[in-house]
Amino acid sequence: MLNCNRRPLTDSLVGPVQPRLLALRHRTHSKYVDPTTHSTNAITSFWLSSDAENRSPDAANNNSVNSGNSTLTRVPREGCLLPKSTKDKQKSNENHAARSERNRVDQQCYRDRQRAIQLGVKRLLKEIENLRRRLRDLCLGKESRRPCRVVTDTLKFAETYIRVTSDGEYRVGIDIERQLLEALRNSFARDVVVGDVSGVDALMRQFWRYLQYFGEPRMHLEQVKETVQGVVNVTATLGLT
User: Fold this and answer.
1) pLDDT tens digits, one per residue of 90-133
2) Rounded to whole angstroms, how far apart are CA atoms 87 and 75?
3) How many CB atoms lie within 10 A of CB 215?
4) Which among 238, 194, 235 is positioned nearest to 216, based on CA atoms?
5) Is the distance from CB of 148 to CB of 226 less than 8 angstroms?
6) Is the pTM of this model over 0.90?
């Protein structure tokens, strides 16, 4: 309720006059208005003080920091965030180091696998050669035949080879020559002696000379005798024309 009581007027004194708008709007805050001046500075100071009272403590602290009387505190270097470019460069270096390490491990694994494969290939080739030698021994019957039988079969190979080659059947003679050479190398010692010739290769060269210089050489086996174990004496006749 508005107070309509006014002070009594005198001839020498005029009652206090207030602006109508301010009087209606700020009548409840009359204690903050200077009754003698009624200036707007008093009202402005009221609003400023009320804003300061209603602010939160955090805002007050921020204002105190931003004021000229406050002191700045140094932030530790460890807590500072690195620039984006520095982070990207550091991450790129880490990725490059990890990629290099991974490539080194892959190359080492590749070299180990390659070395293992090479050793496996060598082992397989050696096993294949042993199996081939075993097959030749089985085909020739080296384990089950007596030395006299081995010598007899080998000389028959030589006789057939000489006859076929002298008749002009060179293709058949090549196959028999290969079989004869294998039989000589697998069944006889390296220093086998036939007449004045010693060695398997020398014996094959002697056969070639007979075929080259003579028209129709003929070989006839006469006697095979085993003197001691592993030593055989053979008697054969070679006819040349």
Assistant:
1) 777 778 888 888 999 999 999 999 999 999 999 999 899 888 87
2) 20
3) 8
4) 238
5) yes
6) no
